[in-house]
Design a protein that fits this description.
Elements lengths: L6 H27 L4 H22 L13 H5 L4 H28 L1 H23 L6 H34 L10 H5 L1 H9 L19 H10 L10 H26 L14 H25 L10 H6 L4 H25 L1 H4 L6 H12 L7 H23 L6
Protein name: Ureide permease
GO molecular function: allantoin:proton symporter activity; ATP binding; uracil:monoatomic cation symporter activity
Family: Belongs to the plant ureide permease (TC 2.A.7.19) family.
């Protein structure tokens, strides 16, 4: 099998994973804002996310001859390594729960804020756990200042969200002054009415004309609400923040679980049984993620959450609008996670948590694709740029802490 061994190769894997993991949430958010039901999108994503793990296992995991220390993928499937397999599958379960939570959180508090808070929690908890699990191969004097940068970033993210919410409220309160027919009172009821009016509309193309409204204006916010599948007007953003923090806790556990699966620090394997290689562990990791996501999203088709319209499995199979984008999101996430683990196995999983700076990429897509922070206040812009600066610093510092696993 192919193994990443050099520090340079590990850092390359991390940078590529950073781009992939920062891009797929933007695609999912784009589809939700176009009106596609999140249950449909996430089911599509789930299939290709598993496909990415299978492709990695059958290529990198099968390259070259198999040895005792580095058995190929098919060789390991028949070995008695179930304790490590269970650790890998536990990591997949918490990742699936985290991804599912963020899917709804993005609608309430925005792509940028969700990614910042979730990633910061992941780094603070997950990096600390990985540092001790990896027997401190990463440089603590460099690693933990990088973690501190993430802590500062999460505080700034909360401030950005608060400031941007105040900006949006101000825009909507001035709606009647812009010679529009809707009043602020009507806007507060929009979410309930829009759900009923839009169920029978084209869920992909929507019934609004969001392209005609300038990003950052009250008109833009209102037409976005009419078109999207998850209605947020009149709902407390505390829902979104709660989902975000729950997702962050889940994300902070999947990498340490994978670390235990591949390095067996707790000595759970029987004597003479080789440790799981990255590709085999990633296959089991993705398989458990797939099974849980399949069960939960099929359930959500018939019993949706947060006011999302009901659907059926038949309706899902017939909904091809945006399916290609959802498939792409799953592939990007799958390959991104695989590259993160490949880099982590070589340079330490604590350093590989640098990919959690994915809000750098997500914020870029949020601004370019969705008009987030357009026409916001000066205070919001200052907080936003300060937040991004802290992430840039964190990426450099965490990657500089890379060690070398013997």
């Amino acid at each position: 099998m192919y193994v990443v061994e050099s520090k340079g190769g590990a850092i390359f894997c991390m940078f590529l994973a950073l781009f992939f993991l920062g891009t797929w949430p933007a695609i999912i958010t784009l589809l939700e804002r176009r009106g596609r039901l999140p249950q449909h999108t996430y089911l599509d994503y789930t299939f290709t996310n598993l496909l990415a793990a299978v492709i990695i296992a059958l290529t990198f995991g099968q390259i070259g001859d198999s040895s005792f220390e580095k058995p190929n993928f098919f060789t390991q499937l028949s070995q008695d390594n179930w304790p490590s397999v269970l650790f890998a599958m536990a990591g997949g379960v918490v990742l699936s729960l985290g991804n599912l939570s963020t899917q709804y959180a993005w609608a309430f508090v925005g792509l940028s804020v969700v990614q910042v808070i979730g990633s910061s929690i992941t780094v603070v908890i997950g990096t600390t756990l990985n540092y001790f699990l990896d027997d401190k191969i990463n440089k603590a004097e460099i690693l933990f200042p990088g973690v501190a940068c993430f802590l500062v970033a999460v505080c700034l993210a909360s401030a950005v969200h608060s400031s941007n919410s105040a900006d949006n409220k101000a825009k909507l309160s001035n709606w009647s002054n812009d010679n529009k027919t809707e009043t602020e009172a009507e806007l507060s009821c929009l979410s309930e009415e829009a759900v009923q009016k839009n169920v029978t509309k084209d869920v992909e193309n929507g019934n609004g004309h969001i392209q005609k409204a300038k990003a950052g204006t009250a008109t833009f916010l209102i037409e976005l609400e009419k078109r999207r599948s998850i209605k947020v007007f009149g709902k407390n953003t505390l829902i979104g923040l709660t989902l975000t923090f729950f997702a962050g806790i889940c994300f902070s556990l999947f990498s340490p679980a994978f670390n235990l699966a591949t390095n067996d620090q707790w000595h759970t394997l029987k004597e003479g049984v080789p440790k799981l290689v990255v590709y085999t562990a990633f296959f089991y990791f993705s398989l458990s993620c797939f099974v849980l996501a399949l069960i939960l999203n099929i359930s959500f088709l018939y019993h949706p959450a947060l006011g999302v319209p009901k659907s059926t499995f038949k309706a899902y199979l017939q909904d091809w609008n945006g399916r290609g984008w959802a498939f792409l999101a799953g592939l990007l996430c799958g390959f991104g996670n695989g590259l993160q683990f490949m880099g982590g196995q070589a340079a330490g999983y604590a350093a590989a948590d640098a990919v959690q700076a994915l809000p750098l990429v997500s914020t870029f897509w949020g601004v370019v694709l969705f008009g987030e922070y357009r026409k916001s206040s000066r205070k919001t812009y200052i907080l936003l740029f300060s937040m991004l600066f802290m992430f840039i610093a964190a990426v450099g510092i965490l990657m500089a802490s890379s060690g070398h696993r013997k």
